[in-house]
Amino acid sequence: MKIIVLGSGAGGGFPQWNCDCAQCGGLRRGSLRGSTRTQSSIAVSGNGRDWVLFNASPDLGHQLRQTPALHPRPHDGARRHSPIRAVVLMDAQIDHVTGLLSLREGPPLSLYCTPSVFEDLTTGLPILPVLEHYCGVHWHVVPVAGESGEAMFEIPDCPTLRFRAVAINGKAPPYSPARRDPVVGSNIAVLVEDAATGERLFYAPGLAEVGDAEREWMSGASCVLVDGTFWREDEMPAAGLGAKLAAEMGHLPQSGDGGMIAALREVQAQRKVLIHINNSNPILDEDSAQRHELARHGIEVAHDGMEIEL
Ligand code: MLT
Ligand code: MN
Ligand code: ZN
């Protein structure tokens, strides 16, 4: 299985357009050693030809231009083509779904998402009805809803990959009626298994907590690619960037007793990689103590264009 990190940043990317914090400003001025990051999304393939996108960020157009594996390879005299076979959505957040609009010039979109994400994308943020006026959307239900917290699904164009979705705690988007009271299916994590090799990827760019279920799913994976949004719980207020705590945004910070570093210590995966990193997070500074601390724990930080082969 091949994985390409199209974007490794959280909402806003890095540096964020309107931010002159120590990190965003430092990167612009060249005083911080780090790299620019677009908003998070990955592409996964079992055969190197047919690809599935996990989330479609508003930076998708740029990300596709930067990624030769996802360039068109038309055949039989055609001029247009895309190796993107399907898009799987982990939630209905703006930074994860608005890139769908950038795929409107192609054939009908093959979209995999839960009923609650579908609901948000047809009401509060009606991207899917809008797309009916362009390419159209074929919705494939990922049946994580109500009593059903787990589901398997297949993507016919990628027959060597198997997909398992699991409901995770998180937040529905600010515009969603479910914001205050997320429902089962507002946020999922996905385990992708390569049927040929048995290798597994656990993907969860938004993860509010690591409970027994999450730990078990991660332990069965060869690679975990998980929420790296914040280093500390009060990172935004402490940097004067906003009032919200990490928990209020549905993200588990890396530091602290119950943080992601502690959680990953019990996970056996060969590769532990953080993604969806907010511009406020000191791990974006390659010379920071926090970045060194991650390295000591064998935890990597995803970057745009990173390729992982399992
Ligand atoms: C989040 O995950 O909370 C976001 O990155 C917020 C956003 O997209 O603005
Ligand atoms: Mn986000
Ligand atoms: Zn900033």
UniProtKB/TrEMBL annotation:
Query: Hey, what's the signal peptide range on this chain?
Result: none
Enumerate the SUPFAM superfamilies for this protein: Metallo-hydrolase/oxidoreductase
Pathway as given in its UniProt record: Cofactor biosynthesis; pyrroloquinoline quinone biosynthesis
Question: Where in the numbering of this chain does the Metallo-beta-lactamase domain appear?
Answer: 51-277
Q: Which residues form a coiled coil?
A: none
Q: Which UniProt keywords apply?
A: PQQ biosynthesis, Transport
From the UniProt record, give one GO term of the biological process aspect. Answer: pyrroloquinoline quinone biosynthetic process
The text of the family note is:
Belongs to the PqqB family.
Q: Note the NCBIfam families from the entry.
A: PQQ_syn_pqqB
Its function?
May be involved in the transport of PQQ or its precursor to the periplasm.
- This chain belongs to the protein called Coenzyme PQQ synthesis protein B
